[in-house]
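Hi! If you just cloned this repository, the fastest way to understand the data is to look at a raw example. We've pasted two of them here, unedited. The first protein comes first, obviously.
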Amino acid sequence: MKRLLSACLLAILACFATAALAADVPNLVGTWEGAPSVHGPKVGFRTGKLVLTIVEQQGNSFHGVKTYQVPMAKKDRTEKFSGTISSGGQLFIADHDEGFMLGDVTKTGELELQYGHHGRKAIAVHVILKKK
């Protein structure tokens, strides 16, 4: 009987701990904008505009659409992505096409991200995004 009571108490505490951790996850849903610093062998150094629209978040997972300027094409490109946020505020975002972003939610509530992919289309990007 004592074991059953202890197991029930442990299960209840685990539920409260999980709820407390979930409450600490920031709500990232919305539109985030920034001016990235970019370098790639084909494009050299450049800046532009990056917009992340996070359309849905469930717990630590989210998804959305990324829109950025393509200077050589003189038009914007849109890609879908999926992401996660750790309990410490670290972000991992995987593009559905290619590439990924790593970053953090800053103390001021901004998203600081680094993006990259390798190969013929190698590129490295740093950006700080502010919620609109």
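Ok, and the second one:
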Amino acid sequence: MSKSPDSGAPLLKVDHVTVRFGGLTAVDDVSFEVHEGDLLGLIGPNGAGKTTMMRSIIGVVQPTEGSVSLAGESLNGLPIHQRIQRGMSLSQQLVKPLRDISIADNVAMAAASGKTISPLRALLNVSTERELGVAQVELARVGIASMASQRPGIQPLGVLKRLELARALALKPRLLLLDEPLAGLNSQEAHALATTIAEINQLGLTVVLIEHNLGEVMRICRRLVVLDNGKKIGDGEPRTVMADPVVRAAYLGGDTVGAAAAGAHPDSEEQHA
């Protein structure tokens, strides 16, 4: 059953976050909230600061100023594995599975990693019935259960993207972070994976995604936060946000926005913070 966003306390709170690298300000005083059940698109043109913002949420980088909280608890200073233990997981753009073990074992290893921060110990735990059971459930959720016994090394990108999503789901997160899940996919594959993400959200999982495919973002996201040059320039219902002249100007005078409304998407990909 679909679960509507909670209007109470936010699950994720980004509070006046600034991230500087030397003299470069990658994220500049950004605040937003994500409520239980949200499907939020974190978007913006190249160099907007999206990736740095995502990394500050998961703990790859620490904010220079401001704070990130999950369910009312500050995450500042916590390493990645402790944030995962508190209910986050990240599906990364670049998929790097262990190619010499099966797809099921890749997901089972992710499930086992909830017990330990040691990759070796996690690998030794994949033979347990519980972890393999979790793997089968999550592979079914993302539509590749029939490939469980195959190895990732022979799979096309579309399957690997779904494997990466299953690994993130195996951590049983309260908040799922997706970094360009549709990158590199053709339009049919992107549409199908976006639909899978929306279905996972409709079952109650809160999702934040970075994505350049604006057509699919507009189709599945309930809310957008838009960054440009490290600053937040938009926050709200997708069509309202994308109609804002400031947001349209950030997307090259509005051509990209018009294309997105028609179902197209740009091919650009954020390379840097």
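That's it. A detail worth noticing about the second one: The longest helix spans residues 187-202.
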